[in-house]
Amino acid sequence: MGIATTNPANGDVLKTFEPLSDRDLEAKLDLAQQTFLNYRTVPMQQKASWLNRAAEILEAERDRFGKTMTLEMGKPLKAAIAEVEKCASVCRYYAENAPQLLADVSVQTDASHSFIRYQPLGIILAVMPWNFPLWQVFRFAAPALMAGNVGLLKHASNVPQSALAIEEILHRAGFPTGTFQTLLIGADQVAAIVADDRVKAATLTGSEPAGISLASTAGKHLKKVVLELGGSDPFIVMPSADLETAISTAVTARMINNGQSCIAAKRFILADAIADEFIDRLVEKYRALKIGDPLLPDTDIGPLATPGILKDLDQQVKMSVQQGAKVLIGGEPLSDRPGNFYPPTILSEIPAGCLAEHEEFFGPVALLFRVPDIDAAIRRANDSPFGLGASAWTTNQQERDRFIEEIEAGSVFINGMVKSDVRLPFGGIKRSGYGRELGKEGIHEFVNIKTIWEK
């Protein structure tokens, strides 16, 4: 696929870009390396000032940046604007907290003085996806830049204007030109960048195949990688749950970003005692969602990002039905309009062995499973190759404790929707990846944790 902005609501190609030549790419790598030698010594206070200025730009121009995202990948404009505001929040968080998070830590040993110091590594490559075009990048860039690293961004090829906007924001904020650069390149150029001695580490958010490819290349060159990959998050509802809140949240948790989120709730695991009521009301709420132009304020569901994503999702649903699953609502692409539109869909009565048990459905499709008790709920939740997030709804303290302790995931939310929070570490286990972003753990991923021992 070429590097272009293609409006997923109608298929119009709005702008195209030429990929960087090998010569231009080399110049950017060289600039990043030369910049790092000076940038690593910039006082923390100065970096914080620039990052706060980036937050101000994001907030002042939220409508512009939000519209760019909507035109490139189809999320409702109101959600895109909220994403811009969240990017501002992560900038402010690390501007305020990085000095403390990166401060020397004294440790009592047999030395007269021993401590831990956190120092930058150098150039970090970020390979980022299209589904949250600004947020995925800023949650990497803010801590990496505050730690003294410099960044290279290889963004998804269908969001080039968002990628260039991020570079623009950081440069306008005052960061030197070489501290953060967007690389308009194809996926086939990533391996050579990872192999380059000047690049010290990489981070990727995206698909399993992309993560495996990057990690394999990085492993050959002994480079650290942080991976945030797919998810098939369980949403467990027990008999004691506040059903009204759980159902309302279930709609948002599945339909966020037109269903295209790694941490969207995908598998709804329902206790038999409340399953019938939950399902009837969920179908009713899905039916009320408005599908349409994502630029309009009353649109709930916009298009999927690309025709390929639409095709893949449609094939998964059709195969699940062939294997015995039942469609309660939706189930077919919308052919009455241009664009990549797929309706809110619910699959139930999913049989054992059906692909819907273990594959990630990246779009507005909810998968329903009934269970008799908490033991079965936990088994079903953990019966997945993924382990990103999980949500459980109960007012029973013993059930809460068991979900917290026994669910295999990087995050467990009790009576709430799974979401990322700048103050908390974010990441997964199993095939959802490894490493953490955000919080204290996020800023420590790309530093040399240096031990100092003095006699």
Automatic annotation (TrEMBL):
GO terms for molecular function: aldehyde dehydrogenase [NAD(P)+] activity; succinate-semialdehyde dehydrogenase (NAD+) activity. This is NAD-dependent succinate-semialdehyde dehydrogenase. Belongs to the aldehyde dehydrogenase family. PANTHER family: SUCCINATE SEMIALDEHYDE DEHYDROGENASE [NAD(P)+] SAD. Pfam families: Aldedh. Keywords: NADP, Oxidoreductase. Residues 3-452 form the Aldehyde dehydrogenase domain. Coiled coil: none annotated.
